[in-house]
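Entry for the shared binder. Reason: the reviewer on the internal report wants the predicted structure included alongside the sequence.
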Amino acid sequence: MTSCAAQARATILERDTLAAENFRLRLHCPEIAAQITPGQFFMLRAADRYDPLLGRPFALYDTIVDEHGVPTGIDVGIHAIGKMTGLLEQIRIGEELEIWGPLGNGFPEIQTDHLIQVAGGIGYTPFVAVSREVLQQKTYRERKSSAKQASLVYGVRTKSQRANLSDWSDLPGLDVEICTEDGSEGRKGLVTEPLRDMLEQADSKPTVFTCGPVRMMHAVSELCREHEVECWVSLETPMACGYGACFSCVVPVTDDSAEMGWDYRRSCVEGPVFRGNDIVWEQLLG
């Protein structure tokens, strides 16, 4: 976890629709925007309200910069599924939220020529910033990607659930493949099918980042293991504090020194991004 986590108030600047039951908030929060990197997250709760009492974790969608290139705000993609997200969907422009972060470990530096991003459902939200960094269209930290190509494989059940991908339209060099389980748009089937094609046809070994439903990430991780390709997963683990104090977000991870060969790690501190091969999937899936 970053040692520079800040606690502040963020003003809601804009809200727009991303997909069915998905929306985006734009927040004025220069303290977080100046520090956060792709794959990290922050905690949000309504200011001066105590129901819900606890904050909720949200991944960075992207940062906002002013005309001088100075980070001034952040975008966050939200799936309206519970009490807190329902409140965020209704809260008025100009109101404030309590925010603390950046938290956790983001996606690592790319060491290969090709990055494949595999997203399911709301799991596409971290990959706007990732794509912009990899394609060297935006700088979030003092390092440069070695990747020459980036791909996004994005899957949903049906066309009506697909997100508005206009934020990817200004990313020349990004190949996007859409999959729907019912065949209503793009390729019919699961995201693992085009991923398998990419891995089998690759001239050199790519790197894979994935975010979405746990079973999808498990399938992606297993496919990468079969092809001896490095895979990193971003877990959407429920959290209560974000600092590692409550242990509500623990994840089973391989540990040769542990009696059972694995132990728990806190997703908010050691994650939320983990190597796919390090996750003990049978324990995580129950």
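Summary line for the report: Residues 214-226 form the longest helix (13 residues).
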